[in-house]
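Look over this record as teaching material.
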Amino acid sequence: MVDYKLLMALAAVIEHAGFERAASNLGLSQSAVSQRIKLLEARLGTAVLVRSAPPQATAAGQRLLNHVQQVRLLERDLQADLPQMADAAGRTRLRVALNADSLATWWAAAVSAWCERERVLLDLQVEDQDVGLRRMRSGEVAACLCAAEQPVAGARSLLLGQMPYLAVASPAFVQRHFPQGVAAADVARIPAVVFGPDDRLQHRFVQQLGVTGEFDYHLCPSSEGFVRMLEAGVGWGMVPALQVTEELETGRLLQLLPGQTLEVPLYWHYWRSGGQLLAGLTDELVRVVPGLLAS
C-alpha cells in the first residue's frame, strides 16, 4: 500500500509548481518534500516527476495524481458522514480547469450558491477550451470544462450546452478595412486578435466561411483585455455573445457578419468515482447552465 504522505507530497509539488511552495503548503522543509518524492519513487521503482521548471508528472505520476484527486473527494464524503473527522475550517478545496470565456461570463452565477451551500473553495485553473482536458489527464484537477467530448479513462463527460461566439470589431476598424462592406473572403486578410497559441476559434470561423490559409493575428491571453483590444480597433476577434451584449447594443463593437456565429460545445468532465461532492456539482451545472447560456 502506498503511503499517502508521499502521495500528498507529489500532489503538492505539481499543484504549487515547485518544491519550495509545496514545502510551505505542507509545513515541511524543501528537503523533506524532496526526500518524500525520492522515497515514493524508490518504493515504486519508477520516476514520478520530471524535475523541470515547473516539475511535471511522469505517466506513473499522473496515475498517482488522479488517484489522489479521487481519494480527496471520497474523504470529503466520509467527513460528511463523520463530522468529527472534518478539519477546523470545515471547507473543501476543489481544483477545476475551465476556459477563460466561461469564467468571464456564466461560471460564477452557476456555482456561487453551490459553493456556499457545500462550503467549497474553488481552485480554478484557466485553460483554453480545446486543451483544458490535459489538466485532468495529468491528474492536476478533479474536473474540467472544455470543448472535447471524449473523456479520459475513469471519467465521464456531459454536454452542458453550446456557447455562441460572434466575430466582432470596432466601428473604426470596420470602416478602415471594409469601407465597401464586409465580405467573407476578406476577413482572413486583416489582423485578428487570438487568445493564445491553442485558441483556434478565429481559424475555425474563417474555415466556416470557406476561406483557407493562415492570417495575421495578435495574441492576447485575457478575456477582458481581449474585448478592450477589439474596442480599440487593434483587430477583429471571436467573443462569446454573452460577453459583449452591452458593447453591441451601444455600438462600441459591431458584428462583422451578422447571422454568422460559431457554436462551441461545453463538455463537463468529472471522475466517475469522485464522490458525492463532485456528483452534486455536476447536478448543479446540468440544472442551471443551459438557462445561463440561453440568457
